[in-house]
Amino acid sequence: MDNFNPITLKLLRKQRRISVADIATAMDVSVAQIHRLENGERRLTVDTLLRFCNVLDLDICQLFAEHRKIPVNGIVNSDYEVLPTPPQSEQQISLPAILPGINRVAALRWEPSGHISGMAGHILLYYNHHEGIPERAWGTRCFIAKRDGYQCVGWPMKDESATHIEIPEGRTQFNVELEWASPILAVLAPSAVNILQMPTSLKAE
Fold first, then answer.
1. Rounded CA gap, 89 and 33, in Å?
2. How far apart (Å, rounded) are the C-alpha atoms in residues 204 and 139?
3. Angle of helix 20-27 relative to helix 46-56, nearest 10 degrees?
4. 201 lies in a domain?
5. CA distances from 99 to 12, 79, 86, 121 (A)
6. For the residues 90-108, what does the mean pLDDT come to?
7. Do 72 and 173 fall within a single domain?
8. What is the rounded CA–CA span in Å between residue 192 and residue 5?
9. Taking the CB of residue 58, how many other CB atoms lie within 10 A of it?
10. pTM exceeds 0.85, yes or no
């Protein structure tokens, strides 16, 4: 079987919010083996692929879906602010059409500096809906827009009287008015994105 990238499995697992440990337990293998499978470091047999799909409750045919162009709608800086994508930056990426509602999926690109420069080039996937705040967004890492136009990546929180945004490193923006929030579906390292965009073959042991 051609044109399959094992890192697709990681994207699907994260989208379903299933841990590596849960997959390993269900397949009766070690956590290290699952990491190697997802990173393309271990040969993947048809039997193993079927077992992985069974745990994810996934039709194996979905793994071989056509690729779609996903827009990159902004960059995330060291302060977790979302800024417009510079003209010289890549404006879209190509990913397998494996996520539900793939035509609504968009991306942000991490371009931080300083002590979090290791995140540079990572891709954050989210649903480009801009339709308020779904209930599942509260307490979840999201792409957030305030009513004043400010956009960032953080955790929307609410108490009895106000809403807040928690930002990594212990920072909180208190008493904010939110326009919308969209949960981050997955974060992909640059190497994962490159592999997903490159055709490869499913190898047999």
1. 36
2. 42
3. 120
4. no
5. 7, 29, 27, 21
6. 82
7. yes
8. 9
9. 16
10. no
